[in-house]
UniProtKB/TrEMBL annotation:
It comes from the Bacteria. This is non-reducing end alpha-L-arabinofuranosidase. Homohexamer; trimer of dimers. SMART domains: Alpha-L-AF_C. Residues 290-491 form the Alpha-L-arabinofuranosidase C-terminal domain. It catalyses: Hydrolysis of terminal non-reducing alpha-L-arabinofuranoside residues in alpha-L-arabinosides.
Amino acid sequence: PKAKMIVDKEFVIGAIDPRLYGSFIEHVGRAVYGGIYEPGHPDADEQGFRKDVTALIKELSVPIVRYPGGNFVSGYNWEDGVGPVAERKRRLDLAWAAVETNEVGTNEFAAWANKIGAEVMMAVNLGTRGPAEARDLIEYCNHPKGTYWSDLRRSHGYEAPHNFKVWCLGNEMDGTWQIGHKTADEYGRTAVETAKLMKWVDPTIELVACGSSSRGMPTFAEWEATVLDHTYEHVDYISLHTYYGNRSNDTANFLAKSLDMDDYIHSVIATCDYMKAKKRSKKQMMLSFDEWNVWYHSAAADKQLERWTIAPAQIEDIYTMEDALLVGCMIISMLKRADRVKIGCLAQLVNVIAPIMTANNGASWRQTIFYPYMHASIYGRGVSLKPVIRSPKYDSKEYTDVPTLESAIVFNEESETLTIFAVNRDLADDLDVEVDVRQFAGYRVVEHIILDNPDPKARNTLSDPLRVTPRSGGGSELKDGCLHTRLPKLSWNVIRLG
Ligand code: AHR
């Protein structure tokens, strides 16, 4: 099979916000305790954070990390997590049926984020709490000094304000599983009143309103419209969340699921723009895809989980080669709308549906999905260009006309590099691709990175952590303004020209 692409410098979709490559740490399972933080571990630093994990996260160049939830935030009293650690209260976490020790809270997390060089994307509790507590929290975090909450922070050893810039107004408030679940009107009203107070405390912040917790929710689209009707002029982003799985073991259909993500993004943009029209607003609403990933492997194990333990091994998906391909396709899906999707958070970062795994008191390693995420984060900075693609297509159980070739192009003018991210969805055959890059005279192929494996179910584990790793492909050739390359069957590819 053969495919063709045309790449043109003028076909600009939009500037890629580096925050598209964000991630997420929730107080759930072993994400915090036993993940980023394990004081007894031989590699722990003076604050108890695991240096091996920090080093792996640095490889990913994560610009922003959402915290502290997720479902957890909807029952969280942030005051429980500040002040002397010895005095902190243990609480039942009703979201995950676990015990929260509160050893790590807002200040420790801010210090950790600093170590990995990331911004914090804070979430406030709009489940059991409301505008007043959100106002107190932002005053504690962002106000310099001279008031009760800001001086309390200083007395806790954090003289300088954290200045968290991006804040989520609750989490998945449309879901019945959410602590303090609300109707769209109830949430919209609470969100706008919270937004007002928070921006009065710190007008420099940006706010994310909760969209639907997935495109499959019965209230999807109507929820977005109603919430934005209440909040449009007071918030900056609406959130999107999605997780895909391959429960029926149908790889061709599974790999096509990013088409659902494409449609989801387009539908939310359309709903935002409808509200812009209705309000005669000059403002363009942006999208925060602040939870996305593959999630299904751990579902059965989680049903057996004992309740009320500390940091149980919960939602720990062990990812396969094919999962890495879908993750690559999902990144491409966001790059295709880089003009509107400004924040993305791979959910999550360590142990819990994560690119990085740890053994308690043991090693840490990279899952298969680590690689497409890392490549995109490192090489996917610049502007997203819209390629014209002619690709063979196939039909699967749920999707028609699925292109075998999925691709996004990133041009970085400053470093004069052109990066082609490409997935070959074909289960059986390599794909020959011709890319017209005649505007990029003088460029040469810097490298062609390939992630593939003869077994689509291959995984990286504690005993075999390097089974799926990228390799260097030698076959790409640039001749007379045309790149000739071959993408192996079921592969993720990064072709860098410069
Ligand atoms: O990321 C895991 C969970 O998925 C989050 O807590 C919740 O927001 C979503 O349902």
